[in-house]
Amino acid sequence: xxxxxxxxxxxxxxxxxxxxxxxxxxxxxxxxxxxxxxxxxxxxxxxxxxxxxxxxxxxxxxxxxxxxxxxxxxxxxxxxxxxxxxxxxxxxxxxxxxxxxxxxxxxxxxxxxxxxxxxxxxxxxxxxxxxxxxxxxxxxxxxxxxxxxxxxxxxxxxxxxxxxxxxxxxxxxxxxxxxxxxxxxxxxxxxxxxxxxxxxxxxxxxxxxxxxxxxxxxxxxxxxxxxxxxxxxxxxxxxxxxxxxxxxxxxxxxxxx
Length: 257
Ligand SMILES: [Zn+2]
Hints:
Layout: H1 11-14, E1 21-26, H2 40-58, E2 63-65, H3 88-104, E3 109-114, H4 122-128, E4 135-140, H5 146-152, E5 157-159, H6 162-171, H7 192-195, H8 205-208, E6 214-215, H9 222-245
Parallel strand pairs: 1-2, 1-3, 3-4
Antiparallel strand pairs: 5-6
Helix pairs in contact: 2-6, 2-9, 6-9
The structure holds zinc ion (ZN).
């Protein structure tokens, strides 16, 4: 078994390792309804990636899990007290510097794994791809197993909803304050184009929601959280195994023929 967890290994244990894939989780620090902790997105992302990296390592993948970035882009949710935010340009600079460190140490590939909807990295990666030799794959863990989401959960939502509450009940049950939960209802937009879903705004979260929750968490259970975590971990472990063995050549990430 390799030294896959950078936060917990030592120079003495890891200095002779050869890693193929660095894994960088990105979370957030924001109000999650009245019943889930501020670090909800970071906790979920770290838990999932601990399990996915351990699994990938046990299947022979050469992965190195980096400590998670515990802040995300929350400029539009600062209306909820104690939420902390990085501007997108700041987050991009942090990611750029970590990618530069990964490149310095000769790790050829990276998985950037996001756990917060406000963190959008595509424009940054379009810019970064010509500035680094590190081949970066981007994924949101909350969209990698939508089929399992549909099979497991009953109530639609986005934030501190049935899904996120179930995940925390499974990962950190002692942090969930169910008596404080609301029904997660939200306000309707006045613009027809927004009601129809084809016009976008950076939603001012304190106007859109009542307590920052979006989606009814009342049907959440730890069992649902366990089942969803398992589905996501399996998919991400498989991705890491494939990334680890994929040769970085002129055609990466495509086949020659
Ligand atoms: Zn969240």
